[in-house]
Write a structure and sequence with these properties.
Shape: globular
Radius of gyration: 16 Å
Order of helices and strands: EEEEEHEEEEEEE
């Protein structure tokens, strides 16, 4: 998957016609309209086309995907990551994102970064921990090391954060 660009992750549904909510840091999601994308969750891979892009607000966007035309089909996509082939958006320079990195508290795996919340003071990592969320301030008091090669974050949490 070296030639793929992460667009975002499906986080929910919108209305009854199969529109999906996506968390995305992709700078210009409008250019994705009409393109085929890859949806991946664990070992399950689906291919779909983005029919429409709408509702763009602060890292959140709504996608209408082909063949997803009702609420039940859209619900099945929650948790899937959306990728596009890099040759379809040749001018895009991907920033290194820590979304998807595995997080360890000392030596214990506590989950995967699924989102980054931006606040006035600092960013907060949203970590999926077996279906619940852990919020970790992205400051050196808690985040001790980020390894981009291994895609891991070493943290030291205090009691009550989990």
């Amino acid at each position: 998957m070296d030639n793929l660009i992460l667009i975002g992750q499906v986080t929910g549904t919108h209305r009854l016609l199969g529109t999906v909510k996506v968390n995305s840091k992709f700078p210009n999601v409008e250019i994705l309209k009409g393109l085929s994308v890859i949806l991946k969750k664990d070992n399950d891979i689906k291919i779909s086309k983005i029919n429409d892009v709408k509702g763009i607000t602060g890292g959140r966007v709504l996608f209408d995907l082909d063949k997803i035309n009702n609420l039940d089909l859209a619900k099945e996509l929650v948790g899937y990551k959306i990728y596009v082939r890099s040759d379809l958006v040749p001018d895009y320079k991907e920033e290194i994102s820590i979304i998807g990195y595995n997080v360890y508290d000392k030596e214990e795996h506590i989950g995967e970064v699924i989102d980054i919340l931006e606040t006035a003071a600092h960013e907060i990592l949203i970590v999926d921990n077996l279906g619940s969320e852990i919020m970790i301030p992205y400051i050196d008091v808690f985040v001790k090391e980020v390894d981009d090669v291994k895609k891991i974050i070493k943290a030291e949490l205090i009691e009550g954060m989990r």
